[in-house]
Amino acid sequence: MTAVLQARDVARSYGATPALRGVSLDVADGEILAVTGPSGCGKSTLLHCLAGIIRPDAGEIRYRGERLDTRSEADRSRLRRTEFGVLFQFGQLVAELTAAQNVALPLLLAGATRRNAHGAAESWLERLGVAGVAGARPGEMSGGQQQRCALARALVTEPRLVFADEPTGALDTLAGEQVMGQLVGVARERSVTVVLVTHSGRVAGYADREVVLRDGAVDPAGLGIAR
């Protein structure tokens, strides 16, 4: 299968503390890849580099064959509004906005009309089973409802690649399985590539393949574990 995302010798430090020590990996088009490992091993830093949220200190990242890490912040932000979807552990919904307004936000930022953006938002909220909270603000929702709204926001632009950083880490088992089931269902249906960071073996079990990080490097014993 064709690699949609490639990392080569990626390194990143925070001050004198190395977080990534020369990580290399490929993500195939349409693949669901789980990046696992103990807390503090560099999983989230790797995901943030792959998504263009931060730049690596060394190495390179390519998206569909083109360098991602050398693009401007504006170009990388544009990709995250159009071709990338990002789902964080705590959802990071805007507290002052309703669920529908949160989901519509990426489309509005990309220039969609308010009518079209809110129509798409309501459609995704319905699909993910949270249409009933469309007018509620995050503080009025359960954790599972918030995360499904955050998933709707990540998917509303119909991205080609979704990055999920501990997407079930703040949820109970049932809510976590609902979120993962919906994410994987959409990915399979639409051939969306997913890079999933998790410390949970149960969540990693949804992936096609698993890569294990230890101390900022790929563990050769855990490289490319097929599911």
Automatic annotation (TrEMBL):
Name the Pfam families on file.
Answer: ABC_tran
This protein's record includes keyword rRNA-binding: no
Please verify whether the record's keywords include Secreted.
Answer: no
Domain of life assignment: Bacteria
Question: GO molecular function: any one?
Answer: ATP binding
Q: Which InterPro entries match?
A: AAA+_ATPase (IPR003593), ABC_transporter-like_ATP-bd (IPR003439), ABC_transpr_LolD-like (IPR015854), MacB-like_ATP-bd (IPR017911), P-loop_NTPase (IPR027417)
Q: Where is the ABC transporter domain?
A: 5-226
Identify the keywords attached in UniProt to this record, alphabetized.
Answer: ATP-binding, Nucleotide-binding, Transport
Designated name of the protein: ABC transporter ATP-binding protein
